[in-house]
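4.2 Preliminary Data

To establish feasibility before requesting continued support, the project team ran the inverse folding procedure on a target of 391 residues. The structure was first converted into the token representation described in Section 3, and no sequence information of any kind was made available to the design step. The complete token record follows.
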């Protein structure tokens, strides 16, 4: 899908002007949902929960810069026609990034915050100033770079990603996230608000302990002490090293963000002329429900037919699999549909039992004659209607 940068700006402004800088995604469909995911990918939005995104500190900074119309037009002009969102962000934030670069050079940094509590997304916490960037947990070099005498110094530190850790070296969970607000408070405290990156799984402290040198932690006692440290290193790369990365499919490709057509019904069946009346019955029932049934033989987008099959399944809201004759191709396609989380309707003419792995799932038995196909249409009518109501 083509990115509309003006629409992206509108979404950011909508989020900025809303309560708690959040935007609801529960009702968002199509273009809006896709553009929200673009913003999430670039780190401008963070997931608050299943229903909402929230501006990150980077998103807030970018929105503040481009909310002025003349600045926005100038940023687009400097980036050029069809500029990527990444380019627009870089140009808009260039003055701020230059200050950080002057301070940090090419160092990769993250904040490690250890407190004796469970971390809750979108919460507010405080820490004693004397525990903030204290040696030896933060190096003397870094302490010298950030005197934290001013709000600007605090804001610079708050721009780095964070690892929020509960005290302990066992099954306590550490979360990745970021600071949204930070300030000196009355007395000897520093207050901060934060969000957690819901897209990054929390990790147990014992896993971090095993690789503590990779996290810049030199002393096991650091797991037991309430403090805020600034560490050198790439937090995300280090967290990733704790878990093996699942490989994607090797024989076909799937889009990261599928462009699902809610009207599309993918029909997987053997290429046999005697099954054409069955497909016609499925297609007719689909049309009565405002849907469009398609077989892979009706499209030709890629040189490899398996890619056309996967694309059809991936972009459809419902997948009908005719398992008559236990055709191995259909069962392979059925497995793909289940893996991609599709609404699958299984039909068959066979009277014998289904394979063990599928026998517990509902399926429709039918006869390939006038009366049987009429009954099949009635059962599909009910099923299609039920699935449409869930979308």
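Position-by-position output of the design step:
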């Amino acid at each position: 899908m083509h990115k509309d940068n003006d629409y992206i700006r509108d979404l950011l402004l909508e989020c900025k002007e809303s309560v708690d800088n959040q935007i609801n995604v529960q009702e968002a469909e199509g273009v809006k949902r896709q553009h929200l995911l673009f913003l999430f990918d670039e780190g401008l939005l963070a997931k608050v929960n299943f229903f909402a995104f929230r501006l990150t500190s980077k998103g807030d900074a970018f929105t503040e810069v481009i909310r002025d119309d003349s600045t926005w037009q100038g940023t687009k002009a400097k980036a050029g026609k069809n500029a990527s969102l990444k380019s627009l962000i870089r140009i808009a934030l260039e003055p701020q990034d230059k200050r950080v670069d002057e301070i940090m050079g090419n160092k990769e940094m993250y904040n490690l915050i250890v407190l004796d509590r469970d971390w809750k997304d979108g919460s507010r916490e405080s820490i004693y100033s004397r525990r903030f960037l204290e040696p030896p947990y933060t190096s003397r070099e870094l302490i010298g770079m950030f005197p934290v005498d001013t709000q600007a110094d605090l804001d610079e530190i708050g721009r780095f990603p964070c690892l929020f850790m509960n005290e302990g070296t066992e099954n306590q969970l550490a979360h990745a996230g970021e600071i949204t607000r930070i300030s000196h408070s009355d007395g000897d405290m520093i207050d901060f608000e934060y969000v957690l990156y819901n897209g990054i799984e929390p990790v147990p402290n014992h896993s971090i302990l095993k690789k503590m040198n990779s996290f810049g932690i030199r002393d096991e006692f650091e797991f037991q002490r309430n403090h805020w440290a600034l560490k050198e290193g790439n937090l995300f790369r280090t967290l990733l090293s704790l878990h093996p990365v699942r490989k994607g499919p090797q024989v076909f490709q799937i889009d990261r963000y599928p462009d699902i057509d809610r009207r599309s019904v993918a029909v997987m069946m053997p290429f046999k002329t005697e099954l054409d009346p069955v497909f016609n019955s499925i297609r007719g029932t689909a049309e009565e429900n405002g849907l469009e049934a398609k077989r892979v033989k009706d499209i030709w987008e890629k040189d490899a037919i398996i890619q056309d099959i996967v694309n059809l399944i991936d972009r459809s809201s419902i997948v009908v699999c005719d398992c008559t004759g236990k055709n191995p191709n259909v069962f392979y396609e059925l497995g793909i549909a289940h893996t991609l989380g599709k609404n699958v309707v299984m039909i068959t003419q066979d009277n014998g039992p289904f394979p063990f792995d599928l026998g517990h799932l509902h399926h429709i038995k039918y006869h390939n004659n006038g009366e049987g196909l009429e009954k099949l249409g009635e059962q599909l009518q009910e099923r299609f209607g039920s699935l449409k109501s869930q979308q």
